[in-house]
Design a protein that fits this description.
The chain is α/β, with parallel strands linked by helices and 336 residues long. The protein is built from 14 helices and 14 strands. Helix 6 packs across helix 9, helix 8 packs across helix 9 and helix 9 packs parallel to helix 12. It is globular, with a radius of gyration of 21 Å.
């Protein structure tokens, strides 16, 4: 029997869980889990020690919101500086690994079950081909998975920060407006294709096509204000689109097309014949829209290379705790 500690570490909250596995390939069972406010703790080590109590797992993996280099990470929105060797010493766990919070999802893919996923596009995955995980949330996460004889190896990526490529005059006008409105020298893909990007797309339409009485105006103003709290423009766009508001429908439709196109670009960049997985908050919140022809058609619209993408299946990950689960899968791999 193997016991592992898994953590999903973010600037606002940290989710820790203790998992048990009866065998190398058997199911992982969560024994207990707890959510912490990250800012209430000076570091991860005392939090993990408090959570563990007298338990001493065989290994631990912590998914962290930021780049990991040589076993060390500085969280983007938290003062913690993490070192996996120091964490191992402080917690008494023999094997500890820090992994980027998006790259870690690669390790969970082989162990997902039906309630955790939903089909976006059918296809036939090549077991020997690379995989792509992409997720639109506050930002846009990207990671690749490379099959090896010992299992998948995660390759972190900053592909979301490549230059945004306009496909039409309307896209170019959106790009130019965003650069001016946000004071940017360049506009990355993440600025447009993310949950935040959906909000910016709606703001562009509000500025150019809507009257001052449109219900999204007030939400958009609050959304940009520091400390605005509950203002959630992307969620309001989705809600009004479902209620048949023309501007919201247009914003969401454009966003779906751009998201699908970016998925196709990144799949071609890695020749991801092993499958594409959509993660992030929008994977479950906008599942019916992602299953629409708008997203899939844009994914396939790659000229002569569309035939390369045609067989590749696309699957949405709908489990909100996928980060912790994937970290547990990776921790178990460390014990092999």
């Amino acid at each position: 029997m193997t016991t592992v500690l898994a953590g999903d570490i973010g600037g606002t909250k940290t989710l820790l869980g203790l998992y048990r596995s009866e065998g190398k390939g058997g199911p992982l069972t969560c024994i207990r889990s707890e959510l912490y406010r990250s800012a209430d703790w000076p570091d991860l080590a005392p939090m993990a020690s408090e959570f563990l109590g007298g338990d001493r797992p065989d290994a631990a993996c912590f998914a962290v919101a930021g780049p990991v280099r040589h076993g060390k990470a500085q969280l983007t929105n938290l003062t913690w500086s993490l070192d996996q060797d120091e964490l191992a010493t402080a917690t008494g766990i023999a094997q500890v690994e820090l992994v980027n919070d998006f790259a870690v999802l690669i390790y969970g893919l082989p162990h997902l079950c039906a309630p955790q996923v939903a089909a976006i596009k059918p296809g036939q995955a090549d077991p020997s081909g690379p995989l792509l995980v992409i997720g639109a949330g506050t930002g846009l996460g990207v990671a690749y998975g490379i099959p090896t004889p010992s299992g998948l190896v995660a390759m972190a990526s900053e592909g979301a920060h490549a230059e945004f490529a306009a496909h039409s005059q309307a896209d170019w006008e959106l790009r130019q407006w965003l650069a001016s409105d946000l004071g940017l020298d360049r506009v990355s893909t993440e600025r447009v294709v993310s949950g935040t990007g959906l909000g910016h797309g709606a703001r562009f339409l509000l500025a150019h096509e809507a009257s001052d009485s449109h219900p999204l105006h007030g939400v958009a103003e609050d959304w940009l204000r520091p400390g605005a709290g509950d203002a959630d423009l992307p969620a309001e766009v989705a809600r009004l689109a479902a209620a048949q508001d023309p501007l919201a429908i247009k914003a969401l439709d454009r966003w779906l097309g751009l998201y699908g196109s970016v998925c196709g670009d990144l799949a071609l960049a890695g020749l991801c014949t092993g499958g594409i997985w959509l993660a992030g908050g929008t994977a479950s919140k906008l599942l019916p829209q992602l299953q629409s022809a708008r997203f899939v058609d844009a994914f396939l619209r790659k000229g002569r290379l569309g035939a390369v993408l045609e067989p590749i299946p696309i699957t949405a990950i709908t489990d909100s705790a996928i980060g912790q689960f994937s970290a547990a899968c990776r921790a178990r791999m460390l014990t092999a």
